[in-house]
Amino acid sequence: MKTIANGLILKGIELSPVKENIVIDDENKIIEISKDVQEGEIIDASGKIVCPRFINAHTHIGDSIIKDEGDGLSLSEIVKPPTGIKHLALESASDEELVEGMKESMWDMYNYGTSHFIDYREGGLEGVKLLKKASKDIPITPIILGRDSCFYGDDPNYHQVKVSIRKLLKHADGIGLSGFGEIDTTVAEIICEKCEKAGKISSIHVAESESNQFESLEKTGKSEPQRAFDAGFNQIVHMTNPKNQDIVNLSKSNSSLTVCPRSNGALHVGIIPLYDILKTGVKPLIGSDNIMINRPNIFRELEFTLKIMKGLSKNYIAPQEILKMATTNLSINSSLSSKINKSYIGEGQNAELMIVNQKSDNPYLSLINRAEREDIVKII
């Protein structure tokens, strides 16, 4: 039993700042939050913020082996399968190199306060198994979305697609697809159906670039987000270049949105109109995307997002809403919350929190603007 005492707690789904104490039992469950209670070991959090640990909702951890390569190249030249420089590097790397690179990145995420990350795992079933091996002794939870090369192409073997999905879903938490530029609509529908039946996640990149949208509209008469909504994906990633109706349809869909603004900037594909999306009531998640492009530092992701979105929209965006994208928004995204065991600070929840030095009176901006790795004084 231990008590975190005298800290400013960001409590509940709304991250409400309260001066209370947290009692945690020996099974790491929060059993009481109140002003006066103190039991067991006392952890003094005076002058500090007690915040839920982060979820990095979109990563490609396999490309940890080629950090900062491809600068100046196009999105397709860098990451499009199977000939992007990322995929060529993954194919040529040894299992040992991949595992060591993934371990380094997971420890980096852990030390910056991340408890869970959703990874698009390349390499088919073996790629899924490699990440499981790499994460075995690291105190962080990967949510692994696999994929297989048989999903790609204009004339896929649907029987082979179904067999590969079945094998992947025995070991992975779902399927994560590169995009509609590499798969046909039937493959997308099969994947969504099989994932839904298995209670697992179906996810896809959409509208990352304007050219993706143009090609989709020219080929099918539908935008990439609309095709994802129609197929039934649990999670769409990016939507950097939506058509006007895409934002409305997102708010009416059952899909969760994950945004990756730093990656979009690095790949010069645009800036997502986040202010317009938030106005519809959508509660996005946030991810750092390819580790070859970005260090998976969620503090840096949040600061970039808050400031670039206010500058782009010329409107105020509350920092509390940006912090929720890395913490509690998952709990209200029904398409993902039932599939990912990630808690917030509340009685009966798992204790997944960090104690961070408070640098300013505004706790949200203190975390987003000021916090560095050395300001995290304890991770629980």
Describe the protein in words.
The chain is of the alpha/beta class and about 375 residues long. Helix content is about 40%, strand content about 20%. The protein is built from 16 helices and 18 strands. The strands form three sheets. It has a nine-stranded parallel beta sheet with strand order 15-14-13-12-11-10-9-8-16. The chain has a five-stranded mixed beta sheet with strand order 3-2-7-17-18, with no helix packed on it. It has a four-stranded mixed beta sheet with strand order 5-4-1-6, with no helix packed on it. Helix 4 packs parallel to helix 5 and helix 5 (about 160-170) runs parallel beside helix 6. The longest helix is centred in the N-terminal third of the chain and has 17 residues, at about 95-110. The two termini are about 15 Å apart. The model has no long low-confidence stretch (mean pLDDT about 95).
Secondary-structure map with pairings?
Elements: E1 2-5, E2 8-11, E3 16-19, E4 21-24, E5 30-34, E6 41-44, E7 48-52, E8 54-60, H1 75-79, H2 85-92, H3 95-111, E9 114-120, H4 124-135, E10 141-146, H5 158-171, E11 174-177, H6 185-198, E12 201-206, H7 210-220, H8 224-231, E13 235-238, H9 244-252, E14 256-259, H10 261-266, H11 274-279, E15 285-286, E16 289-290, H12 298-313, H13 319-324, H14 329-332, H15 334-337, E17 353-357, H16 363-370, E18 376-379
Parallel strand pairs: 1-6, 2-7, 8-9, 8-16, 9-10, 10-11, 11-12, 12-13, 13-14, 14-15
Antiparallel strand pairs: 1-4, 2-3, 4-5, 7-17, 17-18
Helix pairs in contact: 3-4, 4-5, 5-6
